[in-house]
Amino acid sequence: MSATALEQSLLDHYRWFHRHPEPSYEEHATTEHIRRILEEQGIEILKTGLKTGLIAIIRGGRPGPVIALRGDIDGLPITENTGLPYTSEHAGYMHGCGHDFNLTVALGAAIELHAVRDDLAGTIKVIFQPAEEGRATKERPTGAVQVLNTGALDDVQAFFGTHDAPGEVGAIYIKEGGTSGAVDKFAVTIHGHGTHAAEPTKGDDVIVATAAIVQSLQTVVSRSIDPVHPAVLSITHLEAGNTWNVLPSEAFLEGTVRTTERVDRQIAKDRAVRIIENTAAAYGVTASVQWFFGSPSVDNSAHWAAVGRRIAAEEGLETRPGWADLGGEDFSYYLDHAPGLFVRIGAGDTNAPHGPTFAPDPHGIIAGVRFLTAIAKRALAELADPTDGHADCTNEND
């Protein structure tokens, strides 16, 4: 397939995916459409037991290392208001974060790599992952965890992925180290003794105690985290009482902490819990704290970031410095398994992600395909012979 024909085909596929968004763990039509495209190309699909999403496999002509590429496939519960001619046909849902863009990049790379499979030494697994946006619970973890739990990726030595981003169309944004926020949640119940509002000395004022806790928690980032490390603590929910003249016996608050550095993640928890418990004690009440560690930060390998910059230059692609933000991204779970690189692909002035007017420029897709295809080839070569003029590729995330 010529480059022009491939690009047109991928744009057609992208528009289909954009018109048919599906929520996390319900991406049935999306999965089947991806399956049909892959099968038409003669690309093998692994049997994994996944209910939605799938893993394709490209077996090189010679034995060698195993790497993986990832695209995510789920949409969001948002009513689209972009005015695009290929706007969502599923009421109340849209691809409001660009997963249609990301999966099309992975699809294009799979097609390109399959076409040259006889020249490859090694194996490439291409993940079309469900539920990146899904709210993770112990019973229903995020999509990356479910994919890893199949065991199909146990032999993978390096992971690579892309995500659309605001910026110059087709530019590759690369950053080593932490690039997303570790997603941690806390929930706190303040316990005291309720009383009439006219007689506060006969009970405890859990509302005043809660207000003090909220204020004090803002010092976690400002006084406990290195000021050059991105981090934020936000209180997002407060609840206490149900009438105007009674001091309640309980109050509730919850929120989230986002950090990019592993050491900061534990510091934030330890400091927050001490503040909550000790501030409560100072007001004569008690606090029950629940802390939930979600997905870690995406921690890009410095080695693979350097390789990515070289690859982009060789492909004639523009490269730009990447950045860290504090949104969650479950590609981080793959990088806990093996090192790799997660890059952003410029998609123009997209408007705010997770909003009804979000609209990446799909003409950035082909740049993502070129990058992902090229770094896959390079990764197989380097992992097969890490002494071939390059740094060692061992897991830098251990």
TrEMBL record:
Superkingdom of the source species: Bacteria
GO BP term (any one): diaminopimelate biosynthetic process
Any Pfam family: Peptidase_M20
Cofactor note as given: The Mn(2+) ion enhances activity.
Keyword Zinc-finger: no
Cofactors named for this entry: Mn(2+)
Domain Peptidase M20 dimerisation residue range list: 186-282
A GO molecular-function annotation: N-acetyldiaminopimelate deacetylase activity
The entry's keywords: Hydrolase, Manganese, Metal-binding
InterPro entries: Amidohydrolase, Bact_exopeptidase_dim_dom, Peptidase_M20, Peptidase_M20_dimer
Residues bound to Mn(2+): C97, H99, E133, H163, H354
NCBIfam families: amidohydrolases (TIGR01891)
Record's protein name: Amidohydrolase
